[in-house]
Specification:
This protein has 246 residues and is an all-alpha fold. Helices cover 73% and strands 0% of the residues. The protein is built from eleven helices and no strands. One of its GO terms (biological process) is cytochrome complex assembly.
Protein backbone atom coordinates (compact mmCIF):
# COMPACT_ATOMS: atom_id res chain seq x y z
CA UNK A 1 0.00 0.00 0.00
CA UNK A 2 2.79 2.41 0.93
CA UNK A 3 5.41 0.90 -1.39
CA UNK A 4 7.29 -0.39 1.65
CA UNK A 5 7.11 -3.50 3.77
CA UNK A 6 5.54 -2.26 6.98
CA UNK A 7 5.25 -5.73 8.49
CA UNK A 8 8.92 -6.53 9.03
CA UNK A 9 10.44 -7.46 12.37
CA UNK A 10 10.92 -3.89 13.57
CA UNK A 11 8.22 -1.60 12.23
CA UNK A 12 5.08 -3.51 13.20
CA UNK A 13 5.45 -3.16 17.00
CA UNK A 14 6.84 0.36 16.53
CA UNK A 15 3.62 1.38 14.73
CA UNK A 16 1.54 0.11 17.65
CA UNK A 17 3.78 1.94 20.12
CA UNK A 18 3.58 5.15 18.06
CA UNK A 19 -0.24 5.03 18.02
CA UNK A 20 -0.41 4.56 21.80
CA UNK A 21 2.20 7.26 22.38
CA UNK A 22 0.13 9.72 20.34
CA UNK A 23 -2.94 9.04 22.47
CA UNK A 24 -0.97 9.41 25.70
CA UNK A 25 0.42 12.71 24.37
CA UNK A 26 -3.15 13.95 23.89
CA UNK A 27 -3.87 13.07 27.53
CA UNK A 28 -0.84 14.99 28.82
CA UNK A 29 -1.44 17.89 31.25
CA UNK A 30 -0.54 20.62 28.75
CA UNK A 31 -2.72 19.29 25.90
CA UNK A 32 -5.98 17.88 27.26
CA UNK A 33 -7.12 20.89 29.38
CA UNK A 34 -6.74 23.41 26.55
CA UNK A 35 -8.42 21.44 23.75
CA UNK A 36 -11.93 22.95 24.24
CA UNK A 37 -10.83 26.62 24.25
CA UNK A 38 -8.59 26.09 21.24
CA UNK A 39 -11.43 24.45 19.35
CA UNK A 40 -13.68 27.38 20.30
CA UNK A 41 -11.14 29.94 19.08
CA UNK A 42 -10.38 28.14 15.82
CA UNK A 43 -14.03 27.59 14.94
CA UNK A 44 -15.35 30.96 16.10
CA UNK A 45 -17.99 29.38 18.35
CA UNK A 46 -18.19 29.09 22.13
CA UNK A 47 -17.44 26.03 24.26
CA UNK A 48 -21.07 26.14 25.39
CA UNK A 49 -22.28 25.93 21.78
CA UNK A 50 -20.01 22.95 21.19
CA UNK A 51 -21.50 21.20 24.23
CA UNK A 52 -24.94 21.83 22.77
CA UNK A 53 -24.08 20.00 19.57
CA UNK A 54 -22.25 22.41 17.25
CA UNK A 55 -19.22 20.46 16.02
CA UNK A 56 -16.17 22.44 14.79
CA UNK A 57 -15.12 19.56 12.53
CA UNK A 58 -13.41 21.61 9.80
CA UNK A 59 -11.31 23.62 12.26
CA UNK A 60 -10.32 20.48 14.18
CA UNK A 61 -9.42 18.65 10.97
CA UNK A 62 -7.14 21.42 9.71
CA UNK A 63 -5.55 21.80 13.15
CA UNK A 64 -4.72 18.08 13.19
CA UNK A 65 -3.39 18.35 9.62
CA UNK A 66 -1.07 21.13 10.79
CA UNK A 67 0.20 19.00 13.67
CA UNK A 68 0.62 16.02 11.35
CA UNK A 69 2.61 18.03 8.81
CA UNK A 70 5.24 18.87 11.41
CA UNK A 71 5.36 15.34 12.82
CA UNK A 72 5.75 13.80 9.35
CA UNK A 73 8.61 16.17 8.54
CA UNK A 74 10.28 15.36 11.86
CA UNK A 75 9.91 11.65 11.17
CA UNK A 76 11.42 11.97 7.70
CA UNK A 77 14.31 14.03 9.08
CA UNK A 78 14.98 11.55 11.89
CA UNK A 79 14.98 8.65 9.45
CA UNK A 80 17.31 10.47 7.05
CA UNK A 81 19.69 11.12 9.96
CA UNK A 82 19.47 7.47 10.98
CA UNK A 83 20.36 6.41 7.43
CA UNK A 84 23.67 8.24 7.82
CA UNK A 85 24.44 6.11 10.88
CA UNK A 86 23.58 2.68 9.50
CA UNK A 87 27.11 1.51 10.23
CA UNK A 88 26.56 2.25 13.91
CA UNK A 89 23.15 0.61 14.35
CA UNK A 90 24.06 -1.32 17.50
CA UNK A 91 25.53 1.72 19.19
CA UNK A 92 22.55 3.87 18.15
CA UNK A 93 20.12 1.29 19.57
CA UNK A 94 21.99 1.17 22.88
CA UNK A 95 22.20 4.95 23.28
CA UNK A 96 18.59 5.42 22.17
CA UNK A 97 17.37 2.76 24.57
CA UNK A 98 19.12 4.39 27.51
CA UNK A 99 17.80 7.85 26.60
CA UNK A 100 14.21 6.61 26.26
CA UNK A 101 14.46 4.81 29.62
CA UNK A 102 15.56 8.11 31.16
CA UNK A 103 12.46 9.76 29.68
CA UNK A 104 10.40 6.96 31.21
CA UNK A 105 11.96 7.56 34.62
CA UNK A 106 10.89 11.22 34.34
CA UNK A 107 7.23 10.25 33.95
CA UNK A 108 7.53 7.60 36.66
CA UNK A 109 8.70 10.47 38.91
CA UNK A 110 11.93 8.71 39.83
CA UNK A 111 13.44 12.10 38.99
CA UNK A 112 12.21 15.09 37.00
CA UNK A 113 13.69 16.74 33.91
CA UNK A 114 12.79 20.46 34.19
CA UNK A 115 12.60 20.95 30.40
CA UNK A 116 9.64 18.58 30.17
CA UNK A 117 7.74 20.28 32.99
CA UNK A 118 7.12 23.44 31.00
CA UNK A 119 5.31 24.37 27.81
CA UNK A 120 6.61 26.84 25.24
CA UNK A 121 3.44 27.96 23.48
CA UNK A 122 3.74 29.89 20.25
CA UNK A 123 1.40 32.54 18.93
CA UNK A 124 0.31 31.91 15.37
CA UNK A 125 -1.04 34.46 12.90
CA UNK A 126 -4.36 32.65 12.78
CA UNK A 127 -7.86 34.03 12.55
CA UNK A 128 -10.67 32.37 14.46
CA UNK A 129 -13.12 30.53 12.21
CA UNK A 130 -10.61 30.12 9.39
CA UNK A 131 -9.53 26.68 8.16
CA UNK A 132 -6.18 28.14 7.07
CA UNK A 133 -5.82 29.73 10.50
CA UNK A 134 -6.52 26.40 12.19
CA UNK A 135 -3.84 24.78 10.02
CA UNK A 136 -1.35 27.51 10.97
CA UNK A 137 -2.16 26.98 14.65
CA UNK A 138 -1.55 23.26 14.19
CA UNK A 139 1.88 23.99 12.74
CA UNK A 140 2.73 26.39 15.56
CA UNK A 141 1.51 24.25 18.41
CA UNK A 142 3.27 21.15 17.14
CA UNK A 143 6.41 23.03 18.18
CA UNK A 144 4.84 24.78 21.16
CA UNK A 145 3.75 21.52 22.77
CA UNK A 146 7.11 19.83 22.21
CA UNK A 147 8.53 20.48 25.72
CA UNK A 148 5.50 18.77 27.28
CA UNK A 149 5.04 15.86 24.86
CA UNK A 150 8.80 15.72 24.25
CA UNK A 151 9.50 12.34 25.88
CA UNK A 152 6.81 10.48 23.92
CA UNK A 153 7.66 12.28 20.68
CA UNK A 154 11.40 11.77 21.19
CA UNK A 155 10.87 8.04 21.72
CA UNK A 156 8.99 7.73 18.43
CA UNK A 157 11.54 9.87 16.59
CA UNK A 158 14.25 7.58 17.97
CA UNK A 159 12.41 4.58 16.56
CA UNK A 160 12.09 6.43 13.23
CA UNK A 161 15.82 7.14 13.19
CA UNK A 162 16.52 3.42 13.57
CA UNK A 163 14.43 2.66 10.47
CA UNK A 164 16.94 4.44 8.22
CA UNK A 165 14.24 5.12 5.59
CA UNK A 166 12.42 8.41 5.04
CA UNK A 167 9.25 6.57 3.95
CA UNK A 168 9.25 4.27 6.96
CA UNK A 169 9.94 7.14 9.34
CA UNK A 170 7.05 9.13 7.86
CA UNK A 171 4.69 6.15 8.29
CA UNK A 172 5.79 5.78 11.91
CA UNK A 173 5.14 9.46 12.71
CA UNK A 174 1.85 9.24 10.82
CA UNK A 175 0.79 6.61 13.36
CA UNK A 176 1.82 8.95 16.18
CA UNK A 177 -0.16 11.82 14.61
CA UNK A 178 -3.16 9.49 14.24
CA UNK A 179 -3.01 8.59 17.93
CA UNK A 180 -3.01 12.30 18.79
CA UNK A 181 -5.52 13.35 16.16
CA UNK A 182 -8.30 10.78 16.67
CA UNK A 183 -9.17 11.87 20.25
CA UNK A 184 -8.89 15.52 19.19
CA UNK A 185 -11.47 14.92 16.45
CA UNK A 186 -13.63 12.95 18.89
CA UNK A 187 -13.77 15.95 21.23
CA UNK A 188 -14.68 18.22 18.31
CA UNK A 189 -17.50 15.90 17.21
CA UNK A 190 -18.90 14.92 20.61
CA UNK A 191 -17.99 17.70 23.04
CA UNK A 192 -21.10 17.21 25.19
CA UNK A 193 -20.54 13.48 25.60
CA UNK A 194 -16.76 13.79 25.93
CA UNK A 195 -16.82 16.36 28.77
CA UNK A 196 -17.23 13.74 31.56
CA UNK A 197 -14.56 11.57 29.93
CA UNK A 198 -12.11 14.48 29.80
CA UNK A 199 -12.90 15.33 33.42
CA UNK A 200 -12.10 11.72 34.37
CA UNK A 201 -8.71 11.87 32.66
CA UNK A 202 -7.92 15.23 34.27
CA UNK A 203 -8.56 13.73 37.70
CA UNK A 204 -6.19 10.86 36.94
CA UNK A 205 -3.46 12.84 35.19
CA UNK A 206 -0.69 11.61 37.50
CA UNK A 207 -1.64 8.00 36.85
CA UNK A 208 -1.62 8.64 33.10
CA UNK A 209 1.88 10.10 33.40
CA UNK A 210 3.04 6.98 35.19
CA UNK A 211 1.53 4.77 32.47
CA UNK A 212 3.43 6.87 29.90
CA UNK A 213 6.61 6.42 31.93
CA UNK A 214 6.18 2.65 32.13
CA UNK A 215 5.57 2.49 28.38
CA UNK A 216 8.66 4.56 27.60
CA UNK A 217 10.80 2.55 30.03
CA UNK A 218 9.62 -0.65 28.34
CA UNK A 219 10.36 0.76 24.88
CA UNK A 220 13.89 1.63 26.00
CA UNK A 221 14.41 -1.86 27.38
CA UNK A 222 13.18 -3.42 24.13
CA UNK A 223 15.62 -1.24 22.19
CA UNK A 224 18.47 -2.47 24.36
CA UNK A 225 17.52 -6.14 24.09
CA UNK A 226 16.22 -6.39 20.52
CA UNK A 227 12.77 -7.22 21.83
CA UNK A 228 10.91 -5.39 19.04
CA UNK A 229 11.84 -8.14 16.58
CA UNK A 230 10.62 -10.86 18.93
CA UNK A 231 7.39 -8.96 19.57
CA UNK A 232 6.77 -8.54 15.83
CA UNK A 233 7.24 -12.26 15.14
CA UNK A 234 4.89 -13.03 18.05
CA UNK A 235 2.23 -10.75 16.55
CA UNK A 236 2.49 -12.33 13.12
CA UNK A 237 2.40 -15.83 14.61
CA UNK A 238 -0.69 -15.23 16.74
CA UNK A 239 -2.45 -12.72 14.43
CA UNK A 240 -1.70 -14.08 10.94
CA UNK A 241 -4.26 -11.77 9.28
CA UNK A 242 -1.77 -8.94 9.82
CA UNK A 243 0.38 -10.44 7.08
CA UNK A 244 -2.33 -9.49 4.58
CA UNK A 245 -2.12 -5.78 5.45
CA UNK A 246 0.07 -3.38 3.44
Amino acid sequence: MFGIDILDASLLPALLVALIAGTLSFLSPCVLPIVPPYLAYMSGISVGEMKQGRAPVLAALFFVLGLSTVFLLLGAAASAFGALLLGYTDMLSTVAGVVVMIFGAHFLRIFRIPLFDREARLDAPAQGGSALGAYALGLAFAFGWTPCIGPQLAAILTLAAQEGSVERGAVLLAAYALGLGIPFMAVALFMGRMTPVMAFFKRHMERIERISGLMLWTIGLLMLTGGFSAFSYWLLEHLPFLAEIG
